[in-house]
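Appendix B, Record 12. Input sequence as logged:
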Amino acid sequence: LILENWPERGEVKYQNVSLIYNDSKQSILRNINFTIKPNEKIGIVGRSGVGKSSLISTLFRLYKFQEIISSLDFKIVKNDENFSTGQKQLICLARAMASQNKIVVLDEATANLDSKNDALLQDIVKKHFACSTVLMIAHKLQSIVNCDKVMVLDKNEIIEYGKPTDLLKNEKGSFYK
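Logged structural output:
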């Protein structure tokens, strides 16, 4: 049973989470453990294929995703040629702003934005989502360097997790490299 106002605080906690797709014996995620406090902004980084989006998909398994999309006041038709990829990303951001969720996930939200709109998105995350927990998957480091914490994934595991300033001090660390 999921309560109507769930989640109340926006805390996210993973304990020993592993994920295997379609009866495959290969783990997509292995022994993932972390806690995100309410209202924290978390950047999630790593090379392609290390499990960033899979990590987020485990969070969404609590919802029937189609119901969330169909409950919006307007619809964007799939493959609509009237909007660029960047414009579609901004529309999705506007949806998130309108819904005032306690947990907001931005998966490569800046991937198709120019530097001006990237800076705008960072400002929106800081101001509009101040009372939301934000998980932001990004390849552009400037998109997540202002996050409270950064999670670095490699080989389907968390290899670093901490404040960006602390991670940048470790010259042997993956985030530094």
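Confidence is low (pLDDT under 50) at residues 62-76.
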